[in-house]
Design brief:
alpha+beta, five-stranded antiparallel β-sheet, 2 helices, 5 strands
Length: about 100
């Protein structure tokens, strides 16, 4: 299992980023493997400038707060952690191989 967010400071170099799983208005989601554990995750990559231009940084913060407190429900993807660099915000999410929930 991947280390919890409180135990580690994440960075992009901790992951082998694979193919795109999906895309949205502010970025893309990629299949990624955490290098140390080989654990598969969905890495949500959000463009900082798009979030700022649309004035929705507060929504991202709220999404992180909410998902950080949700545990153990089979219809909700686990948020393992998050980090940022100068250009992007990254959410490390549970990988759901069955596809998108609404499908």
């Amino acid at each position: 299992m991947i280390e919890k967010k409180s135990q580690k400071r994440w960075k992009l170099d901790d992951f082998e980023v694979g193919y795109e799983l999906g895309r949205g208005k502010f970025g893309q989601v990629y299949l990624a493997k955490e290098k140390k554990s080989k654990y598969l995750v969905a890495l949500k990559v959000l463009k900082r400038n798009q979030l700022e231009k649309s004035n929705v940084e507060h929504q991202l913060k709220r999404e992180i707060e909410i998902q950080s407190h949700l545990r153990g429900h089979h219809n909700i993807l686990q948020l393992y952690g998050f980090f940022a660099d100068k250009d992007h915000f990254y959410l490390i999410l549970e990988y759901a191989p069955g596809g998108e929930l609404y499908k």
